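Long-time lurker, first post. I've been practising inverse folding by hand and with some scripts of my own, and I keep getting stuck on stretches where the structure tokens seem ambiguous. Below is the full token string for one chain I'm working on. Before anyone asks, I'm not after the true native sequence, just a reasonable design that respects the backbone. If someone could post their per-position residues I'd love to compare against what I wrote down in my notebook.
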């Protein structure tokens, strides 16, 4: 019978020592690996912190470059010059239109006696036919081509800016009339553009 006390013991202490050594050797590497891992934001992306750059809100925005400011000033000057040119052009066009209307108005003023004769002849039925009727038609057509507009007609509502009431009568007006109305044209009026060369001279009647 063999004595069990003579059997060599299991090298348990050696195994424990070896395990401890492996743990000690691996610990610095784990710490080093953890030190190299970047932070992770709430969105899951790593956040690398650059210590050399300050936070975005830590300093004011840089001043614009002088060339940028100069370019902005030149652009504003160009826009202002363009606006002035457009205003000048529009003003000159209005002035030319006024001068043209004034010139045509002067011609119409000189022709008023002739135009009144044409009106009277038409009122008396003398322009139904003949050479005089053709001349009158050509004259009125030519004036219309130059923007001359005749105003004042029986049945029109009286407009003090275009008509001059020389008489008030008790003439019967159409049913439903609610405003003063022209019942007779004594002399027609003429307008060129916005200029009233002569207001129509009329007789009017008031609604009952």
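-- Answer (accepted) --
I ran through it position by position. Result:
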């Amino acid at each position: 019978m063999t004595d069990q006390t003579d059997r060599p013991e299991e090298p348990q202490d050696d195994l424990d020592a070896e395990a401890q050594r492996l743990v000690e050797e691996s610990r610095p590497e784990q710490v080093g690996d953890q030190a190299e891992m970047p932070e992770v934001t709430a969105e899951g992306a790593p956040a690398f912190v650059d210590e050399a750059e300050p936070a975005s809100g830590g300093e004011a925005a840089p001043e614009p470059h002088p060339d940028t400011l100069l370019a902005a000033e030149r652009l504003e000057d160009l826009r202002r010059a363009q606006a002035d040119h457009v205003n000048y052009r529009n003003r000159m066009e209005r002035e030319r239109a006024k001068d043209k209307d004034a010139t045509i108005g002067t011609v119409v003023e000189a022709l008023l006696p002739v135009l009144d004769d044409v009106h009277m002849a038409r009122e008396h039925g003398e322009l139904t036919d003949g050479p005089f009727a053709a001349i009158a038609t050509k004259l009125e057509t030519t004036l219309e081509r130059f923007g001359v507009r005749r105003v004042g007609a029986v049945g029109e509502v009286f407009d003090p800016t275009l008509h001059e009431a020389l008489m008030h009568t008790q003439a019967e007006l159409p049913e439903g009339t609610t405003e003063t109305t022209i019942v007779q044209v004594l002399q027609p009026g003429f307008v060129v553009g916005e200029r009233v060369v002569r207001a129509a001279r009329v007789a009017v009647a008031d609604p009952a």
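A couple of notes from the structure itself: Residues 66-123 form the longest helix (58 residues). Strands lie at 39-40, 46-47, 148-151, 163-169, 181-187, 189-192, 195-198, 200-205. Happy to go over any region you disagree with.
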